[in-house]
Amino acid sequence: MARAKRSSSVLEAARQRLAGIKAITPAPNFGPGLQVADYEQEINDFSAKIDKYNGMLSTLDDLQNEIEADEGNLRSKSARMLSATEAQYGPDSSEYEQVGGTRRSERKRSTKKTAVKG
Q1: With a cut of 70, which residues of the chain have pLDDT below it?
Q2: Which of 68, 71, 14, 75 is nearest to 46 (CA)?
Q3: Distance between CA 44 and CA 15 in Å, rounded?
Q4: How many CA atoms, within 13 angstroms, populate the side-chain half-sphere of residue 6?
Q5: What is the pLDDT of residue 118?
Q6: pLDDT in tens, 19-37
Q7: Is the CB of residue 53 less than 8 Å from the CB of residue 4?
């Protein structure tokens, strides 16, 4: 399942505010520390950071899909290796047990429970 990408309502509001400020003629002077160019640069930097974050999420999604596919292939190969060991050495061999199988002679037999009426 893909990770949710991030958006920012603060960024959208800042973009709209910047557009409004740029529409004012003559260009306003808000004093030191509130330069329009600095505000615009901060908006662009934040937007680039969100884009980078969302790009990394996409990369992680791709990597997760690859890992899940590889895991399925490895699971299948492991089952085939166990089956091949069972076929070559037998289901009650110590070799079969060494590769992770349960020897047939060591399996617990299920017991049928009798229903108690009462």
Answers
A1: 118
A2: 14
A3: 9
A4: 15
A5: 61
A6: 999 999 998 999 988 999 9
A7: no
Task: Please give the structure tokens belonging to residue 87.
Answer: 């076929």
pLDDT of residue 16: 97
Cα end-to-end distance, the chain, whole Å:
51
What is the 3 state secondary structure string of the chain? CCCCCCCCHHHHHHHHHHHHHHHCCCCCCCCCCCCHHHHHHHHHHHHHHHHHHHHHHHHHHHHHHHHHHHHHHHHHHHHHHHHHHHHHHCCCCHHHHHCCCCCHHHCCCCCCCCCCCC
- The alpha carbon of 13 is separated from its chain's Cα centroid by a whole number of angstroms, namely 30
Establish whether the linkage from the previous residue to 32 is cis, with ω within 30° of 0: no
What percent of the chain has pLDDT above 90?
78
